[in-house]
């Protein structure tokens, strides 16, 4: 459709990153705090004006072209990557009150798809940032993250929170982002790993949040619990306003899965301050224990693990130098984050990948954060 090399060379570029999340897993849509760390995986959008009546976008990862009519923006095929771009363009045009000129764009990405590392958020934020730069639109990064989140909710039908989009736009090398998803206040703290490494192990069991529905079910279960709290205990906006004592008062009124998911959510919010203190002080023993507590509850209370992830976790626990591990991302596949001493890192990766393949016949890949 157009010269890809020319657009990549001469076009305006915007780069955003994937992420892992150290603490506050799934708490963003419950208005809690989160602690993402950016990854070296990125999405780059290169963009130019094209003087046509439609925009033309090429995804190098999917090797697909799409065209976009700026006056007719509706979600199309469920799970298709174009929905995210439609949503971003719709939200930006609605915010600024007019249709934008049409563009040619190339999207290059090495963020693993379906791995729980925020490939969709990196896509939406990169495209949004490129459009804003090209058209001279000035939006605070946290507000742009909120706009991209809304685009994903409305056009990809994913009831997500702010974590992924904020991490894609706000992450800094060697630091963790601390974001309050109720107030939108944020700051960064150093990742004091104290002679340890964070190792991401990719199970290569993929999820598609826009098609699977499990994230939406988790969201609905959390707010079902809030509704019952409002009816029988006290007024609450979200589970960040609810204590375990409050929840126990209404246990008999809740479906067991709703009660367990709400229990995990409240526990994870209470753990957050301990996570932050452990990272700031380099207390890796405590950090590892917190990882293990979170993972246990994600599996047994929140119901978003899977056999392959549990296999990775079990192998990791048998390794020397291991402190702790947890699932990261939407769940039902994806990646684990592992905290391992520097001196044992190479052997840890070799053992986890080889034993995982023996158990599952699936290749496992590792990334040092």
In short:
With 369 residues, the chain is an alpha+beta fold. The chain has helices at 4-10, 82-96, 119-135, 141-155, 163-170, 209-212, 214-232, 244-249, 256-281, 284-300, 307-317, 345-360; strands at 12-21, 33-34, 36-49, 55-59, 64-68, 103-109, 175-180, 186-190, 196-202, 322-328, 335-341, 365-368.
Mean pLDDT: 96
Order of helices and strands: HEEEEEHEHHHEEEHHHHHHEEHE
How many beta-strand runs? 12
Major sheet: 5 strands, mixed
How many angstroms separate the termini? Answer: 38 Å
Structural class computed from helices and strand pairing: alpha+beta
Helix content: 40-55%
Rg over C-alpha atoms, rounded to the nearest angstrom: 21 Å
Number of helices: 12
As laid out across the biggest beta sheet, the strand order is 1-3-6-4-5
Question: Outline, from the CA principal axes?
Answer: globular
Low-confidence stretches: none
Q: Strand portion, in percent?
A: 15-25%
